[in-house]
Amino acid sequence: MTDTTPPPAPTPALRTSDPAVLRALAHPLRVEILDLLDDLREATASEVAERTDQTVANCSFHLRCLEKAGFVERAEPRGREKPWRPVHPSRRLEPDPTDVASIRDVASVAAVVVQREAARAADYFADPRAADPSRVRTTVLTAQRLWATPDELEELASRVVALADAFEGRDEDPSLRPEGAVLARFFGVLHPELRD
């Protein structure tokens, strides 16, 4: 007899503006742990501690904080080991424009993520392998000044997100990756100036 049970639906990306959920990420080590779990798919607290140069107890504490907020969960045990895994394949933290706490908490998380991604980019450019011609032609760093209305900036932000969304699912499902696909990082920030 053939099993006709459909496979479970993939877990959707997390989209949240909930200040309580956002506050759980406003810590550099938690962002690093979640990033590490995204890369490894699952890891024990000991494995996380080894890769982050932290104690197992400290990593266990932060993993439980991430679990409480819904970012990570326990994976299938591996013998006596109890690994963790991310709940969502990706996360989009969107402030509620009517909630000051939500805006403040997204800004706190954003500052941590920007610092982490800026450090990652600086490490990349300092690495001699970045000078390989195949890498040079697929790498871009741009900083531009532009004058735009709020509506135009919102449209530009939507278009930038849509460009990256076109590749969604490839990280979780290798069958969606075309031949020759390589893992890449995209980090973009668009914001109006605060000065007059």
UniProtKB/TrEMBL annotation:
- Entries under CDD domains matching the protein: HTH_ARSR (cd00090)
Keywords, sorted A to Z: DNA-binding, Transcription, Transcription regulation
Query: Which Gene3D superfamilies has this protein been placed in?
Result: Winged helix-like DNA-binding domain superfamily/Winged helix DNA-binding domain (1.10.10.10)
The protein in question is named: Winged helix-turn-helix domain-containing protein
SMART domains for the chain: HTH_ARSR
Residue ranges constituting the HTH arsR-type domain according to the UniProt record = 20-109
Instruction: State the Pfam families in the record.
Output: HTH_20
- Membrane-crossing ranges are none
Annotated spans, Disordered? 76-96
